Amino acid sequence: MNFKRLQTKIAVMLIVTLALIVGANNWITSFLFQQEYSRVLQQELAVVGNSLLTQLDRLSALGVPLEELTGFEQQCKEIISKYPDVSHAFVIDPNGRILFHSNPVLIGTEAELPYYSQALMMVQETRFDYSMEDELYTAVVLPVQNNSLEPASGAVVVTMRKSVITQKLAAYALVPIVLSFIFVALAFYFIMITLSRWVTKPLRVMSMHMGLVAAGDLRTNADIVTKDEIGQLASSFNHMVTQINDLLRRTAQTAELETQYELERRQREVAEKLQRIVSSVSSSLDVQQVMDRVLQGSRELLPYRHAAVWMLDHGQLLQKSAVSELDSEPNFHQEEVESAFRHMCETGEPHMSPDAKVLWYPLTIEQNRVGLIGLTADEPFTSQQMTAAYSLFSQVSVFIHNASLYKRMQQLATTDSLTGLLNRGTFIELAESALVRSQQESTALSFIMFDIDHFKSVNDRYGHLVGDKVLKGVARKVSELLEHDASARVGRYGGEEFIVMLEYTGLEESSRLAEVIRQAVSELTFTSDSGTLSVTISLGVSTARTDNTMKLKQLLKEADQALYAAKYSGRNKVCMA
After folding, report:
1. Inter-CA distances, 82 with 79, 103, 399, Å
2. Per the domain annotation, does 178 fall within a domain?
3. How many other C-beta atoms are found inside a 10 Å radius of the C-beta of residue 78?
4. Which residue range forms the structural domain that includes residue 238?
5. How far apart are CA 186 and CA 330, in angstroms?
6. d(Cα 204, Cα 209) in Å, to the nearest integer?
7. How far apart are CA 109 and CA 107, in angstroms?
8. S-S: 100 plus which of 72, 110, 251, 388, CB 3.0-4.6 Å?
9. Residue 226 and residue 77: Cα distance in Å, rounded?
């Protein structure tokens, strides 16, 4: 039996209550029944004794003393035989001596009756209980009437054992007890049926619906329509579920609005960041600066550990810019870069590693893949971060392309298309600025002017293509010799004539460098269909004076005069102005 269930608890309570009621009822009924039954038996004893008393009263009325009467012993025995429940029937005189008895042995003995004398004095029927030989008796004393009113001349006594009464009571009491238990069982059955229908079943229904609500099913509704407390509880429960549904709906709407607001806020933040980055990147027309700003700005959109840009240069992917966390070296492998580039060339879409910690974005110009951007992170990139990055990187190609075009235009405007050196106009502008600095800072400034000896013969003998090859070879060699001097500038002055500007360099050091250049060019060899050839150059060196009175035109003229002096003195020489 599960004592945790309400029905069990109520059943136990009902059983205890009914048991107490039935027990109390049986005890009270038994007590009253015993009293009443004892009274009835005593009346019966009185009736039994009156049959003998009537005869004694008649004889006593005739004046016959009780002591002189005979034959009443037999009548006492007949009473005992006729009424088996009667224990003794006898007659006593005023002194309590037994005159007649159903047991002849006791005739003449004194009766042990406690209240007989009172009955004789009052000449009144008396009923009482007494004990004799450790056994309880109930007795009825009937005084014998005489001519005088009192006291009586004797009495008839009829007794019965109390145990006989008890046995009869027990026999009669069994029936109401059995009936009581039947009544209790029927009452308990009907009460439990009523309890189950009116209390337990509705409560089980309520418990089931509460369990559904606890499990998250808020569509449930307790269909209990009674008007009692349980019906009121069900109504309150349904109202509560409705209120919870309304609250959850309002909460969901609020959460949806908050989520939408947060999403819009983040989108605005991303858009503002993109605008700042795009503005910063688009404000520059320097290719390297564009790539650096792209990588640095993209850190605002997605946190990365390493980032780099690769561009196609003559069929090879070359790293052009890189940014790493804590100044560490990028951990990209060339094979990995090339594999990602091939994949994006095939699919046209960004590429991501399986763990989402490495991202690759293609750089496209006019449907052509021109490079890629790679990023790595310690944690996987989110879809929002990848979308924001794609929005930025999809525009990077345009910025790089514009910067490249600008750089190309600058190169066309400032460099010689054949040799790649500064053209004459650009060189003159730089030289003018350098002369002003030299005069302001009182620093040295020197020029080396040279041309290729007998260059016309080269064109005539080997052709202009070979002549162009010689011009480019000489320009490249001189540029290599001066590439470590940041202040040196090399330009093509015209035809086969070149010029070198050396800031912070005096006449002696400039002459020494001119000799190095002469020697290096003389060691160059060029191939052609007509065989190999080599060339020499003649050089003139001039240096600005410190009186701040010289003009650039004068300096260049002095260098040109020194150059012609070298030619007239045999060529393949260095002369100083």
Report:
1. 5, 15, 141
2. no
3. 14
4. 221-279
5. 92
6. 9
7. 6
8. 72
9. 74
Q: Are 75 and 83 in contact (CB under 8 A)?
A: no
* Overall domain count for the chain: 4
Residue 119 shares a structural domain with residue 41 = yes
d(CA 574, CA 566): 6
Rounded CA separation 63/408 (Å):
175
Query: Are residues 11 and 42 both part of a single domain?
Result: yes
Q: Give me the amino acid identity at 39.
A: R
DSSP state, 145?
P
Q: Residue 369 forms beta bridges with which residues?
A: 364
How far is Cα 129 from Cα 136, in angstroms, rounded to an integer? 7
Residue 491, domain CATH = 3.30.70.270
Reported pTM = 0.44
Kindly provide the b/e burial profile for residues 370-382, where b requires at least 16 CB atoms within 10 angstroms of the residue's own CB.
Answer: bbbbbbbbeeebe
Residue 353 belongs to some domain of the structure: yes
Q: What is the dihedral of CA 211, 212, 216, 218, to 10 degrees?
A: -130
Is 27 part of any domain?
A: yes
Which helix (H) or strand (E) segment holds residue 201: the answer is helix 201-214
Give me the tens of pLDDT residue by residue for the chain, a chain 577 residues long.
554 555 666 667 777 777 777 777 767 766 666 676 677 777 777 777 777 777 777 777 777 777 777 777 888 888 888 888 888 888 888 787 888 888 888 888 887 777 666 666 666 777 777 777 778 888 888 888 765 556 677 888 888 887 777 777 666 666 777 777 787 778 777 777 877 777 777 778 878 888 888 887 877 887 777 777 777 888 888 888 888 888 888 888 888 888 888 888 877 877 777 777 777 777 777 777 777 787 777 777 778 888 888 888 877 888 877 777 655 566 678 888 888 888 888 887 888 888 888 888 888 777 778 788 888 888 888 888 788 777 777 777 777 777 777 777 776 778 888 999 999 999 999 999 999 999 888 899 999 999 999 999 999 999 999 999 999 999 999 999 999 888 899 999 999 999 999 999 999 999 999 999 999 999 999 999 888 999 999 999 999 977 777 899 999 999 999 999 999 999 999 999 8
Which DSSP string do the residues of 297-362 spell out, in sequence order?
HHTTTS--SEEEEEEEETTEEEEEEEEEGGGPPP---HHHHHHHHHHHHHH-S-EE-TTS-EEEEE
Task: Give me the count of residues in the chain.
Answer: 577
Distance CA 325, CA 323 (A): 7
